[in-house]
Predict the 3D structure of the following.
Amino acid sequence: MSPYDPSAFPPFAVTVDLVVLTVRSHALCTLIVRRGEQPYQGRWALPGGFVREGEDLGAAAARELVEETGLRAHDPGDPPPLPGNGAHLEQLATYGAPARDPRMRVVSVAHLALAPDLPAPRAGGDANSARWAPVEELLGEAEPLAFDHGQILADGVERARSKIEYSSLATAFCPPEFTVGELRRVYEAVWGVALDPRNFHRKVTGTPGFLVPAGGTTTRQGGRPAQLFRAGGATLLNPPMLRPEV
Amino acid sequence: MSPYDPSAFPPFAVTVDLVVLTVRSHALCTLIVRRGEQPYQGRWALPGGFVREGEDLGAAAARELVEETGLRAHDPGDPPPLPGNGAHLEQLATYGAPARDPRMRVVSVAHLALAPDLPAPRAGGDANSARWAPVEELLGEAEPLAFDHGQILADGVERARSKIEYSSLATAFCPPEFTVGELRRVYEAVWGVALDPRNFHRKVTGTPGFLVPAGGTTTRQGGRPAQLFRAGGATLLNPPMLRPEV
DNA sequence: ATAATAGTGTCTCTCAGACACTATGAG
DNA sequence: CTCATAGTGTCTGAGAGACACTATTAT
């Protein structure tokens, strides 16, 4: 069969939706915006928008990320261009059920972004129209997100949970310089479990290339001053960090 | 920002492309078809086609799979509806670079299918227009696939290679009843390495729920008769099978 | 002083990798 | 017989989990 006949094909709208995850006060949170129009008017939804003509999918996701958060994305392999102001961005999955939008046929290419805590939502500058919400309460049945965004969020959270097992991606949730304890609290928040601080310390400092000493110390967590580290070049964790009770 | 304005959006064509993998005579192979029209006329490409109006993305991929191979797909969680005639099918990634098709804006939702060896290509019944090719030679630079299909194939192969580490997906390459040695040869072909038969045997038979005895034995590999097994209910392998030299 | 967090050392148990050895068929 | 593959047992070393213990700050 020939791949297609360019003169006859059904037209689709293509959008990108973003699952932006961060860790705020010991909880995994995601960015949601309030819909101003029908359908699902007034309901919370994931940020997103059209892919423009001549725009690549990843570029559209990066543009939306800047518009919604001010965060500049960098590709998985590259280091952050501006230290402390970069976010990890990767394609998640594509959602195209025929009736997922009641008005027309829309295919959405969802992307997953991981960011440190710093930025406050600034969609329209209105705190009532955008906020960080704990994923725990969004995935409950109380007030579901618009469209199929609940499913997209669940898929994004599961991707993040599994990927920090075997990669250094958890450092994307941290500021440029961070302590072992802060990194451990990221794992604990994302997985929702408690990890042994001693074993965690031995594991991450003993994996070559995972962490590199940044030189200083900090007491911002209280207690004995902790060494500061930067993310090392190693992107693959072998052997992986083990998620308890799986 | 509002997700979109339904009156003004650039139109896209949406297709599905298939990376169909199987193991033939100790080599990981993929299904390719010869293009009959411009662009890339006469070049080999991945099978694929338009998503129809009112058709879900996964349904379009399953339809293309039946058209190209006669294989019926089943969802990851479910057992094969017809024993021996099912293939694993899952979404891989979406490719939408603006110039990936010179004629118009096409977004392709690539899918990955894993199938046992049995079927012969039957696209148009013409052996010259469809064939199983070892991925090794397709990923070399000799005669690249049309469009960005070389990249799609590489991504699909990498997905398969990593996923059989921590899941029971390798059984999707096997007939409904298979021996431990046949399963081992699947791992060896997909990873391109040699595995110790004794340690492999101990690992897979010692993992609860991975394999269930089917009752009989076979000597189709020569040597001492081997027990036949079916894939068990366990889909997640914990601890995972380790890929050597990583 | 106490509380809090950082960091080290030590024990045990599981498991991967290496490999000797036995079992059972085909020729 | 030989050869091929199936299957079991045993040793060793790496590493995860549990947890005692010390170190260094704030209050």
The beta strands of chain B are 13-24, 27-34, 44-45, 48-50, 72-74, 86-95, 106-114, 130-134, 211-218, 226-231. Residues 179-181, 197-198, 201-202, 205, 219, 221-227 of chain B lie near DNA strand D (CB under 10 Å from a C1'). Chain B is about 25% helix and 25% strand.
